[in-house]
Amino acid sequence: MIPEQNRVTQQVFPTLIQVTTHPNAEMVNSALLSDIEQIREETPNGRPGNWSCDLYTTMTNEGRLQGRPAFKEFADFAKTCAMQFGSIMSYKFGDKNMHLNDCWLNIYTGGHSQDTHVHQNNLISAVYFVAAPAGCSGLMFYSPRQYAMIQPDLTEITPINAIQTEYTPSPGDLVLFDSAVKHSVPVNETEAERITIAMNFSLEHT
Ligand SMILES: [Fe+2]
After folding, report:
1. What is the mean pLDDT of the chain?
2. Which residues lie closer than 8 Å to 35 by C-beta, 6 or more apart?
3. Helix crossing, 25-42 with 72-88: angle to 10°?
4. How close is the Cα of 134 to the center of ligand 1, in Å?
5. 156 pLDDT exceeds 90?
6. What is the predicted pLDDT for the residue at 206?
7. Domain boundaries, the chain
8. How many angstroms does the Cα of residue 186 sit away from the middle of ligand 1?
């Protein structure tokens, strides 16, 4: 018999997923949607040809949306949330500031998805949900243990043993995570448009 007090069980390397709902989500999303309509008219699909998944994205051809007047207030909100994420992670800001590097549009309809990926050379990545219709895909996150050689049967799936976990979004949600965390968008099962703004942040000298 081993006494309980002889055992120490630690949880190390927890993965921080921070979700902030915009306090004026309806108003902000309505303003963003007007500008998004214009972006779609002006911008062809920038989806790289070697992607196996399909969606509309401006990642490669209109990736600085934060410069558009309609995005300014939203970008400030996202930056504030990224700074809060950095505080929880104990970033030493010093004379550096949170910098929004990229900001692009993604639109998913029926059958669209996004393969598993990370965002190299960035600190924090984020996804904001302008439209998240009922039944649309969530945002799938993968554990660093996803490559474990053997997975046993489980009596229940918990945050400790899960290999993947899907966040189910609502419109106005801003989801932030470390850029090294693997994530994907499962196949979207609804024809209604799932509209997101994706972002990458880093710490830069002011
Ligand atoms: Fe991503």
Report:
1. 96
2. 68, 70, 71
3. 120
4. 21
5. yes
6. 76
7. 18-205
8. 12
